[in-house]
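agent> fetching stored inputs for the adenosine-5'-triphosphate docking request
agent> found them:
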Amino acid sequence: MTPNPGLPADFGDRLRRRPGPAALGPGLSWETRSERRRRHVLFLEDITLSFDGFKALDGLSLYLGEGELRCVIGPNGAGKTTMMDVISGHARPDGGEAWFGDGLNLLESDEVEIAQSGICRKFQRPSVFGSITAWENLELALKGPKTVLGTLGARLSSEDGDLLAHILDLVRLGGRAGDLAGILSHGQKQWLEIGMLLAQKPRILLLDEPVAGMAPAEIDRTSELLSGLAGTCSIILVEHDMEFVRSVARTVTVLHQGSVLAEGDMDFVSSRPAVVEAYLGGLG
Ligand SMILES: Nc1ncnc2c1ncn2[C@@H]1O[C@H](COP(=O)(O)OP(=O)(O)OP(=O)(O)O)[C@@H](O)[C@H]1O
Ligand SMILES: [Mg+2]
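agent> prediction call returned; pasting tokens
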């Protein structure tokens, strides 16, 4: 992975990045399941989840590399959010396997354990605290949910202070530290929330439609922001905006009817007849 220009050399370490084993080429048939598990920070295999007999996920397999930014696309109802629910422990599948990191079985862990172990999820609506500053929102995220509001502003260690300052710059809010989060634009609130997730030092970020409702210029800046995180933590990005996906994605996974229809770069997946058919020609 290419280190992010402009970030301190140890920034990635602070976000607990561990170098993955050397990448193998795609399609190597001799790779065993246990090798594949070891080689990926997230390993989902043959996940099935039914709602009253309807299979929202149907044999879904997805393998995410350390530091990888993966876009997941698919028509409405394809199972994208349900997949995020399984990864974050919000929904329990009926079958399959889901492993994280060095051996956390996601199917035997609850939402809190999963979040504490480094899988941080952002929902579509920003949930920043409007009545405190951008900086204080980050401080709250760093110190944890039990922080008493009155302790905000107390002296941070210089390392934590540096980390928050870097995160604020990274999410394009360097000049807005002292502004109340409530006065930020919708896009800036989304960035602040991404910053709050980064302050929790995630190994995987789960982002569900982060650019929905953003102005075009904000979408461009979000693309830069997420591209700049590549290598710092792994990201699963669910998104409908195809232009945005094209601008950030290296590998795109297309879900349809609860399983993977195609995987590869944007040009590859958008040229698959099955993908075009699933979108009825609507893939930009
Ligand atoms: N709690 C639930 N109870 C019943 N059916 C559900 C539930 N959650 C999701 N579904 C169904 O599972 C399927 C997958 O839903 P999901 O929300 O994962 O799709 P999605 O790919 O995120 O779609 P979108 O692009 O519209 O957000 C849909 O048919 C949906 O109606
Ligand atoms: Mg969804």
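agent> quick read of the result: The pocket of adenosine-5'-triphosphate (ligand 1) is lined by residues 51, 56, 74, 76-82 (CB under 6 Å).
agent> awaiting further instructions
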